[in-house]
Amino acid sequence: MPDQLCQMHCMPKMSDQLSQGEILWQKRNRIKRIVKRRIRFLANLMTSPNKKAIQAAATAASGTAETFNPGDLVRVKSWEEIKATLDNWNQLKRCSFMEEMAPYCGSRQRILKPVEKFLDERDYLIKKCRDLVILEDVRCEGTKDFGDCDRACYFFWRNEWLEKIPDAAGTTAR
After folding, report:
1. Residue ranges of the domains in the chain?
2. Can you give the pTM of this predicted structure?
3. How far apart are CA 143 and CA 155, in angstroms?
4. Contact between 155 and 101 (Cβ < 8 Å)
5. How far apart are CA 114 and CA 130, in angstroms?
6. Which end of the chain is more exposed for a tag (fewer CB within 10 A), N or C?
């Protein structure tokens, strides 16, 4: 029934038409992103880093991963500590560390909830995952490439990028 469609299928009907200038600007930005990705791919291919060193960093990081519960107080590790766990694509176990997450490095945050599965909107499949959490009030407000966005999506944080902060009694904060 047409009136019971998911919101994703109704997006063209819900949004206003863009002006010709806005359409051209978005196409320009898309071409810019594609070229940037291709250059990064070629640069990574040409430098061909030591894959064993990257895998060693990932396994070392996974060995220190803690489990978190909703309400736990955590410190986001510094950019240098996080960077040591990332490969050339800024990923750890296929989870990207976005440029927009960097301002939160070194900050104290509270765990909203662990992520066990999520809807991947690229292919509309539910994906299972582990060792991911979302933090309270830490949301994406847009990217440098796409500009501002009002959707306010949560970032996915790998457990390896976080440290529990014990409270004064020596137990973890709740």
Report:
1. 67-164
2. 0.67
3. 12
4. yes
5. 8
6. N
